[in-house]
Design a protein that fits this description.
It contains 16 helices and ten strands. The protein has 425 residues and is an alpha/beta fold. A five-stranded parallel beta sheet has the order 3-2-1-4-5. Strands 8-7-6-9-10 form a five-stranded parallel beta sheet, with helices on both faces. The N and C termini lie far apart (46 Å).
Length: 425
């Protein structure tokens, strides 16, 4: 599928692409897609002036997400892997062509699709606003409304950082993305972004595998406007995710590929970091919890009173929208969450649609994710963590996997305790 993404000042040739996408603007006609218009308004309102390559990276990320929305997996040759030929206008054509292969590899790893990029002149770079400001703060931290990013922001504040939290607005989480920063420490600065993406004839439900690169694209815009960005040491983009979900090991041999997301995977971050370094973003992507289980994150959180008060209001479920903004209680993220609460030792006040995992039916104990978690737990006990997780750690390119093996073992102990508590094991 060939997709051309450019600002509306670009002269689109309607015969050159399967889909034209207007960047940072509304669609000029019904046959166009569009994405990014709310972002330009947010940056303008905050009186920030990101550098050209910062806008370029976000343009590429938004273009990938527009493709993600438009591509139909069922129409692909194997029913899953899509092929995208993406043409994007940028400010620095020579630079982005120099990292083209790395970008294609990064997106392929993230989404399991095949990507080809072409970069052309005409990138988006608005004139600096009158009285342009520098953003106060010394780092950026992604804040999704989930439990891990909430703990991460709490700990950053406690450790003396002054993060600007970056949120990708989503239904069901908007209130948390606004309220959580205000309640941490003496109050954190926050920046909320919406992509406004729409495409004609999009897939339903839409794939959102590339969503995380847009999230990081917002962080790049804000980070490159920080007062501290131009210093020799640069700044950090903190992405907080427990190590078990970050590695997201396939729980059984049948759960490779489509069931294993990679939004915070160390290989993905390593690939992005290489591109950032070459772009001169002076920004380090860091997950401080790569060797922690979710239960350990809760136990070690530096504001236990705030966590006990609000942990249950955070979001973890992979089907949160599907169940009308409630947790299903049986998907892998929900199982890891419930196991973490059990390990933490505090009452989990979260409402779960499928609460009693011990009910012996297809909706509870025999549900696919619950069965997979049980099989993984038993297999790891039988063959040992290193053998069970061998392929996962090898594919992550981790030179010394011993610490990760220990973290995976402890994560499976948490899950095993949850399943045992409900009589599933």
């Amino acid at each position: 599928m060939r997709i051309l993404c450019a600002p509306t000042t670009f002269e689109f040739d309607h015969n050159s692409a399967d889909l034209n996408v207007a960047l940072y603007a509304q669609a000029p006609s019904p046959d166009f897609g569009c994405i990014g218009e709310p972002v330009s308004r947010t940056i303008r309102r905050r009186k920030l002036s990101p550098p050209p390559r910062g806008w370029d990276f976000l343009s590429i990320a938004l273009s990938c997400f527009a493709a993600d929305l438009a591509g139909h997996r069922a129409r692909s040759a194997d029913g899953w892997t899509r092929e995208f030929d993406l043409c994007v206008t940028v400010n620095d054509v020579a630079f982005w062509n120099s990292v083209k292969d790395e970008l294609e590899s990064t997106l392929q790893f993230l989404t399991t699709d095949i990507w080809t990029f072409e970069f052309i002149e005409g990138g988006y770079h608005p004139s600096p606003p009158s009285g342009a400001l520098k953003q106060k703060g010394d780092c950026v931290a992604l804040l999704s409304g989930g439990l891990d990013s909430f703990v991460g922001a709490i700990d950053l504040s406690a450790d003396g950082y002054s993060p600007v939290t970056i949120s990708h607005i989503s239904r069901g989480d908007h209130d948390k993305q606004e309220s959580f920063p205000k309640l941490i420490g003496t109050g954190l600065q926050s920046a909320l972004f919406g992509h406004g993406g729409k495409v004609p004839d999009g897939e339903s439900p839409a794939s959102q595998r590339s969503r995380s690169i847009v999230f990081i694209g917002y962080a790049v815009l804000v980070a490159t406007c920080l007062e501290t960005w131009s210093t020799q040491t640069g700044t950090n983009c903190f992405v907080s995710e427990n190590g078990f979900i970050s590695l997201n090991p396939p729980l059984t041999d049948m759960r490779v590929g489509s069931l294993s997301t990679r939004t915070t995977h160390p290989t993905y971050f390593r690939k992005l970091q290489s591109i950032f370094d070459q772009a001169g973003f002076n920004l380090k992507i860091e997950n401080r919890y790569a060797l922690k289980t979710k239960g350990e994150m809760l136990i070690e959180c530096q504001d236990q009173a705030l966590l006990r008060k609000l942990a249950h209001t955070s979001t973890s479920c992979g089907r949160f929208l599907h169940y009308n903004y409630k947790h299903c209680g049986r998907c892998i993220p929900c199982l890891v969450r419930r196991a973490a609460f059990l390990r933490w030792g505090h009452n989990d006040q979260t409402t779960y649609i499928f609460d009693n995992l011990g009910i012996n039916d297809d909706a509870h104990s025999r549900f696919d994710d619950v069965r997979a978690a049980a099989i993984a737990s038993l297999a790891e006990e039988e063959v040992g963590t290193e053998r069970w997780a061998g392929a996962t750690l090898a594919s992550a390119g981790i030179a010394d996997p011993s610490d990760h093996i220990g973290m995976l073992h402890r994560g499976l102990i948490e899950i095993r305790s949850l399943l045992a508590a409900y009589g599933v094991l």
